[in-house]
Design brief:
Blueprint (H helix, E strand, L loop, with lengths): L1 E3 L2 E5 L12 E5 L2 E3 L6 H11 L25 E5 L15 E5 L26 H10 L7 H9 L62 E7 L38 E5 L19 E4 L7 E2 L3 E2 L16
Parallel strand pairs: 7-10
Antiparallel strand pairs: 1-4, 2-3, 4-11, 5-6, 7-8, 8-9
């Protein structure tokens, strides 16, 4: 894990998407955070030690989805499927497919495998799966403020974790989408899907993949509007959190009653023309039961908690 020093910083942005506004000063205490997203190998050790079964490996309960076709209530997950040509970007069903049998061991459905992908971020993990892993490892999920503080790497107000230029000197700094989303993937950065952790340079705090590769779960419920805060040090919010779900967040959406959490960082599927969210300020709501081929997580340890050993996870006594 790497140490992120406490202090004041400017959270949010007013230059990109409205859900990132307003820019506001907040503060956090120092904390330890995983250098990279939890990997397939690390999650595999957790599953082997505990026998844990992820949400994607369990069939949904009919009572939780009363409007769903019972025939569709089978174990599975959402998988990105690249269409052959341009599609309507207003309908995500043009590239997301509910795939029975897809889970963290079978990221593209039955017949696929994670063999040779030990160092890739684990995917197809719902929020509850991330919480279970974190508890087993003696850690927690970061708050949105902690995650953004870590992602900025000490750069105040920069667009990206490494500065304001996306490809400084022509060098790719993160695993994102190049080409016309979602049908043309040029893979100019060297990766068509997820990449092994530490494939790109770290930020100023020594953290990898804080932009792109996979979205990451946080501990905060998603709120549509947030207070602007104060610029005076006595009144700056300290590690502000949203600890309950506002049902208006999901109003008008399928499954709108299901709580939504903040995910951060963007993924390998983020493209400038569609989802320019591989930035510290970017945020998006995701329902707690969602597992996809582009969402993962990393963990934190806060002051007062015993710091885990340098190996990220291990059998619990």
């Amino acid at each position: 894990m790497a140490w992120v020093p406490g202090g004041f910083f400017t959270m949010g942005s007013e230059e990109f998407y409205r859900e990132e506004a307003p820019r506001r000063r907040v503060s956090v205490d120092g904390f330890w955070i995983d250098e990279h997203p939890v990997t397939v190998a690390e999650f595999g050790r957790f599953a082997a030690a505990t026998g844990y079964v992820t949400e994607a490996e369990r069939a949904p309960l009919p009572d939780d989805y009363p409007e769903a076709d019972p025939g569709l209530l089978v174990a599975g997950s959402l998988v990105f499927t690249q269409p052959p040509g341009p599609v309507d970007l207003r309908d995500v069903r043009n590239w997301w497919s509910w795939t029975p049998g897809a889970d963290w061991r079978h990221p593209w459905g039955p017949g696929s495998t994670v063999a040779g992908r030990d160092r890739h971020p684990v995917t197809h993990v719902a929020h509850g799966d991330a919480l279970a892993y974190a508890a087993w490892a003696g850690k927690e999920l970061p708050t949105e403020a902690e995650w953004e503080r870590a992602a900025r790497g000490g750069l105040e107000g920069a667009a990206y974790p490494w500065g304001d230029e996306f490809t400084p000197g022509g060098r790719f700094m993160a695993n994102t989408w190049q080409g016309r989303f979602p049908w043309e993937n040029l893979a100019s950065d060297g990766y068509e899907r997820t990449s092994p952790v530490k494939s790109f340079p770290p930020n100023g705090y020594g953290l990898y993949d804080m932009a792109g590769n996979v979205w990451e779960w946080t501990a905060d419920f998603y709120a549509i509007r947030r207070a602007a805060g104060s610029t005076h040090s006595c009144c700056v919010p300290h590690n502000p959190r949203v600890t309950s779900y506002d049902g208006r967040t999901g109003a008008g959406q399928p499954g709108g009653h299901i709580p939504r959490m903040v995910i951060k960082g963007g993924s390998h599927l983020c493209a400038p023309s569609y989802c320019l969210r591989y930035r510290p300020a970017a945020r998006q709501p995701e329902s707690v039961d969602t597992a996809t081929s582009h969402i993962g997580f990393r963990c934190v340890v806060r002051p007062g908690s015993p710091r885990p050993a340098e190996t990220t996870v291990g059998p619990q006594s």
